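Ticket opened by: R.M.
Priority: normal
Category: complex prediction / small molecule

The reporter submitted a protein together with magnesium ion and asked that the result be attached to this ticket for the collaborator who will pick it up next week. Submitted input follows.
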Amino acid sequence: MVGESGSGKSTLARAILRLEDADSGAAFWKGQDLLAMSPAALLGVRRQIQMVFQDPTQSLNPRMSVYQLISEGWDIHRLMPDRSERQVRVRQLLEQVGLSPEHASRYPHQFSGGQRQRIAIARALALEPELIICDEAVSALDVSIRAQVIALLDDLRERLGISFLFIAHDTGVVRDFADTVIVMKAGEIVERGPTEQIFSAPSHPYTQRLLAAALDPDPDVQAQRRLLATAQA
Ligand SMILES: Nc1ncnc2c1ncn2[C@@H]1O[C@H](COP(=O)(O)OP(=O)(O)O)[C@@H](O)[C@H]1O
Ligand SMILES: [Mg+2]
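Result attached by the on-call engineer:
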């Protein structure tokens, strides 16, 4: 999902998870409307859909160890009661996100921004989700770290078959990662389609402006986009 800052991307993600009330509409997950689900049914779905936020300093409780952060969801969902089993699983999850098993006893402040985001990803993976919503999850990271975290997400998608709703104001990041793109503007979806189509032939003027505003490494592509956007404006 792309769209400039303030276009309603986070609000849409939060509405899907019922963290925020939608005034109208529907959000279908496996044929069921999430917005009309009972609280009991919703608890089951909450496990299947996990979220990773932009700022891990805010989303990870600084007083909890990495072990506690990753295993917290098991308490909430009453999973994996066996302590030694949990310890093994936490170590596996840390390895899966490119951290060391020894990191389990440390606290969030002892990590870099990229590592903290890996902890947040491990925390989401602990519940074996089918969908992970990444809300600007790489936006605050330096370019090289960002590429590493995206590669990790890509790898998880390949190996574990997890789907992602990947939210970013940066169109380049979405282009590299997504199969399908939706474009948000002023709280509405204005365009949707396969990534290639959206980026090569955007049909909505807003999408054209959004893409023109982003720099393309290929100057010819960039010039073409600017021309198109100016012609449409
Ligand atoms: N569909 C909508 N209708 C009304 N207000 C909205 C809608 N979507 C978002 N907003 C409001 O717009 C502001 C920015 O939304 P937000 O979701 O944070 O944007 P983004 O994540 O794209 O930067 C918020 O104050 C939010 O409450
Ligand atoms: Mg947002």
